Amino acid sequence: MISPFLLLDTIRPTGPFEPDWDLHPSVVIGTAILGGLYAYGIGPWRRRHGLLPAPPWRVLSYVTGLVIMLVSLNGPIHHLSDYYLFSAHMVQHLLLQLVLPPLLIAGLPGWLIEPLAARPVVGRIGRALAHPVVAGGLFGATIAAWHVVPSYELMMRKHNVHIVTHLLFMVTAVIMWWPVMSPIASVPRLSPGLSMLYLFLVGIPMQAVAAIITFAEQPLYQWYVEAPRTWGLSPLEDQQLGGLIMWVPGNLWMWGAIALVFFKWARQEAEVPRLYPERG
Length: 280
Hints:
- With 280 residues, the protein is mainly alpha-helical.
- It has one domain.
- The protein has helices spanning 25-48, 56-73, 75-83, 86-106, 110-117, 120-129, 132-147, 149-157, 159-181, 192-215, 222-225, 235-275.
């Protein structure tokens, strides 16, 4: 039986969009917990174990990820996404799935995660989830399932279902990025070649969903048909723009990640002769 708490209706504003910076307690508390645990880990916990400090770039990456979480789930982006524009919702989803997770993972020193991964049960679960088939499959299935019309309408009309959906998006996205960014030896990264193939394949379900949304001949989501018109966009134009945002910037982001893996691989290969010069 579904808890009534999860079926609380979303209350939609009736007037035109007006930018505001409302804060949602669940987002603020969640961000504070993630930030507090990180600060404790790279501070008191690290010093107690005699570990080297985290590089400044890692700290900056993690903090930037937390800022993106706050900006994405509060203020104008949240307001536009939830009540007015499908296209704004797609921007929000790209931030939560493609930008936020790599920043958080990049901010994690390996010594901060390794003790947790060393626990037998946690390690087994982590290695299972980080298998590329599982990680990529969870990511693609989550995107596809929640853009089916009934699921999407449930998400938009039931506030706490929407919260759970965003948590699923972020968690499955972190799992998806882990095989190519893992900072720990117990869950090793894929080789550069496999990483590039993996990132290419992982992007296919997202592009397929984006294509279906972009080329639909009528609005798919009644929630946005009923929304006050914003910035002169009709429901169909807004939907097409949202599909294109998922399709083009989302695809370019994945190809950018593939390019980064390739150039890092090429640089490492170029450094081998200098490290091991041939002797005459």
